[in-house]
Amino acid sequence: QVQLEESGGGSVQPGGSLTLSCVGRGITLRNYAVAWWRQAPGKEREGVAVLSKDGYTTSYPESVKGRFTISRDVDKNTVFLQMQDLKPEDTAVYYCSAEFGFTTHTEYTPAPNDFGYWGQGTQVTVSS
After folding, report:
1. To pair with 16 at 20 to 30 A between CA atoms, which of 26, 74, 80, 92?
2. Tens of pLDDT along 97-128?
3. Contact, 47 vs 37, CB < 8 A?
């Protein structure tokens, strides 16, 4: 059974940092493209970072570029989302997703239908 498990969410003050983890169970993440998403109440799900199956091609929207970094640890079968200089508008439930063999590019804008496996999400709250 394939599972993606997110962790690392929590509450942080503006300007703070958090690192989210997405662990693959029954799935070898180095064979997949992985994306991180967020969804705030009343808003659509937004892709915030994508790591191509190749393990080094990434893409980010302008809203998080320079503040968020996606990376992969093959040995831990885990994909991370490092978030710095967090802002109140970053508050949302964050999800990871994966799609087998998916090769993306640096200008790729993710669409939810491009990814077949999803985690349950972890809450991130940025507030003073």
Report:
1. 74
2. 999 999 999 999 999 999 999 999 999 999 99
3. yes
